[in-house]
Write a structure and sequence with these properties.
The longest helix has 24 residues, at 30-53. With 595 residues, the protein is α/β, with parallel strands linked by helices. The chain has seven helices and 50 strands.
Length: 595
């Protein structure tokens, strides 16, 4: 919890509070916050130095980085991290830290001397090399080539610009950490290179360099941990396979404001999270395949872009995150397809096929902001699109098919949703439902072949319903039984059991300009329930159940008496028996002849 707290202080503009004895929150002053950060940075520094002494470079770098984030003006933090970078042959990163430290006051006594030494080493550095790693002898290598039998040993000797070429084979490691700007790849290209770790809580590969390339590797982790962690710089990962089967494990973690990842043509099979981008990191995935229980997630102001990939698991954006989901196939048999949770900014969901999601195809809630356009939603899930609470989401030109309960559900006092030029069809119950005091702008949509109502407005909900087309709804085209001051203009309702169902108090001008074609009943009013006491044995007036107009349709809501207006055409005749089953509802029984 302490580590999480000081990370959050770094990346958010929240006010730190202390908890008083009575449980109330007391806002801390800037001086108190600064003192707390300085104490925490001192603890992290002592811990990081202890890790350096036992050669635990991963935890040491993490400690130095978090301490700098808390106390960015402390000179010795940069100096100690630069010494560790130099020890790991990451001279460019060491020079950056020392140059930053030289601009701060008071200057560390040995900073200038160490900076001059690092600059000299960079100038005198040898040309870029290729370091080979193999389990058996590699044929065809030039004499004098650098050959290692351990990946850790090769990484310890790699310098900026080198290439670590790993030959075919199975390599068991505990953890591989590097900081120089290098390329790690299979040798020859396309060779089957498996790097396996079962260490609890560690990452198989951990990158701290400015730029790195990982190509053609298979990373496997069978315990709690991470296959690839990108803590700093820009990593390009291509043609790799990542497999993480442990509980609370991750395939790829991109963490930190300076961390960027680009995954191309990769496959990920993870029991928990496939990709996690957090703490203002940036991650882009393209042309990849993901099988994961919890899918891909962006959190704490991170950026996530998913392009032209096949995803068998959800895509989740949380508070203050941004990104693009474009040209993908998304299916999740256990959960949802896309989730926008919290105040996301600038999310663009375009040209995806989102199908076979058991719960919800797309969920947006808690102030999400997004543009959803030109997607295909299909499947037998509970709801294709669910919007909860105030938000700013726009749906344009989507094809929404199926949904066992709703095509689109807007609830929880939702406001700020715009549905425009969408096609909705094949819903088994309601097509669009507004509930719980929600409002929406529903404009120029086509709604057809619906098992119940095309548009159901309940719970004092409302909005603007303009120039939509409703056809072949087995109950009502528009049911305004629980609406509060809706705006209807230019809608067309065709071939429905009931065109519009409205409460008794609603005046006819509300649906003026609506076109009715081929409906059994154009307008149906719901009579108010009687409030007085009823005679014994006699149901109260207006409580009798209305008969369904069609044997195939649900008709008006149960328990509501209906008064029909504007009946079109001649009175319906009773269907002759010849039109029934087998030329009659039941065939006549012939009397047996006496023997």
């Amino acid at each position: 919890a302490n580590g999480f707290n000081h990370i959050m202080r770094t990346h958010w503009d929240w006010n730190l509070v202390d908890i008083a004895e009575d449980g109330s929150a007391v806002t801390l002053k800037k001086e108190e916050i600064q003192q707390m950060n300085e104490k925490e940075a001192e603890k992290l520094l002592r811990t990081a130095l202890a890790h350096v002494r036992v050669l635990s470079f991963s935890f040491a770098l993490q400690g130095f980085t978090e301490a700098i984030a808390l106390h960015p003006t402390r000179v010795d933090l940069y100096h100690h991290r630069a010494e560790l970078y130099r020890q790991m042959n990451a001279l460019h990163l060491a020079r950056k830290d020392l140059e930053r430290a030289a601009r701060l006051r008071p200057v560390h006594p040995s900073t200038k001397a160490l900076l001059d030494r690092v600059r000299s080493e960079i100038t005198q550095a040898a040309p870029c090399r290729t370091l080979y790693v193999c389990t058996t002898k590699i044929k065809g290598l030039k004499a004098g080539s650098a050959v290692y039998h351990d990946i850790n040993e090769a990484l310890a000797n790699a310098r900026d610009g080198d290439t670590v070429a790993i030959a075919k084979g199975l390599y068991r490691v505990t953890q591989l950490v590097w900081a120089p700007d290098i390329t790690i790849q299979s040798y020859p290209e396309g060779a089957n290179v498996e790097i396996v770790s079962d260490a609890d809580g560690n990452s198989v590969l951990e990158m701290w360099s400015d730029t790195a390339v990982v190509k053609g590797l298979q990373l496997r982790h069978s315990n709690k941990g991470i296959c690839l962690k990108i803590a700093n710089g820009h990593c390009k990962m291509t043609d790799c396979h990542v497999e993480s089967k442990g509980v609370t494990s991750m395939g790829v973690l991109v963490e930190g404001e300076d961390a960027k990842a680009n995954l191309e043509n990769c496959s990920l099979e993870c029991s928990e999270f496939a990709v996690v981008s957090r703490q203002k990191a940036e991650c882009t995935m393209s042309d990849s395949t993901v099988h994961s229980e919890n899918g891909i997630i962006a959190e704490t102001a991170a950026s996530l872009n998913v392009l032209k990939s096949s995803l068998y698991g959800p895509v989740v954006f949380t508070d203050f995150c941004r990104g693009t989901v474009e040209d993908n196939t998304i299916a999740s048999k256990k959960t949802l397809g896309i989730s926008l949770q919290g105040r996301t900014t600038g999310i663009n969901v375009t040209r995806n096929v989102i199908h076979n999601n058991v719960a919800v195809g797309l969920l947006a809630c808690r102030g999400a902001e997004a543009l959803v356009q030109e997607n295909v939603f299909r499947g037998k899930g509970r709801t294709q699109i669910e919007l909860q609470g105030p938000l700013s989401v726009r749906f344009d030109n989507n094809d929404i098919h199926g949904g066992s309960l709703n095509g689109i559900l807007i609830t929880g006092g939702g406001a700020g949703a715009v549905l425009e030029d969408n096609t909705l069809h094949g819903q088994r119950a309601e097509c669009i439902t507004l509930a719980g005091g929600s409002t929406a702008q529903i404009v120029r949509n086509t709604i057809q072949r619906v098992g119940s109502n095309g548009l159901l407005v309940t719970g004092d909900s409302g909005g603007s319903f303009l120039h939509n087309t409703f056809s072949d709804c087995r109950a009502c085209g528009i049911d305004l039984g629980g609406a509060a001051a809706p705006i209807l203009k230019g809608n067309s309702i065709q071939n429905c059991t009931v065109g519009i169902q409205v409460p008794a108090h609603m005046v006819g001008s509300c649906w003026k300009g609506t076109t009715f074609v081929g409906n059994r009943t154009d307008v149906s009013r719901i009579k108010p329930q009687a409030t007085g006491p009823a005679k014994s044995g006699t149901p109260p007036r207006g409580s009798r159940q209305a008969k369904a107009t069609s044997s195939r349709s649900r008709g008006p809501q149960q328990g509501q008496a209906v008064q029909h207006h504007d009946q079109k055409g001649p009175k319906a005749r009773k269907r002759p028996r010849s039109q029934g089953l087998a030329h009659g509802r039941y065939p006549k029984r012939r009397r047996a002849c006496p023997s």
